[in-house]
Write a structure and sequence with these properties.
By secondary structure, this protein is mostly beta strands. The termini are far apart. The radius of gyration is 13 Å and the shape is elongated. It has one domain. It is 10% helix and 39% strand. The chain has one helix and four strands.
Length: 71
């Protein structure tokens, strides 16, 4: 198994979100996941190539909540 394949076979450590709007009007849409490198200095990221507006935010992975919930 290649190094990349073994990274993606583990549970991700972070989730990626596309955030539009600000404050109470912000909408967070989950767009992918990230796996921290063993040396702690970077991440391998897997997200679809989707046209985005707003910003991308990466947060620590937690157990999934209902769809559309804020991080």
């Amino acid at each position: 198994m290649s190094a990349q394949a073994s990274i993606f076979s583990r549970k991700p450590t972070h989730r990626l979100f596309n955030v539009t709007g600000d404050g109470d009007n912000a909408f967070w849409r989950e767009i992918g996941a990230a796996w921290q490198h063993k040396d702690g200095k970077g991440f391998s990221i897997d997200c679809g190539l989707v046209p985005l507006t707003g910003r991308i935010v990466m947060r620590e992975a937690k157990e999934p909540k209902e769809v559309g919930a804020r991080a």
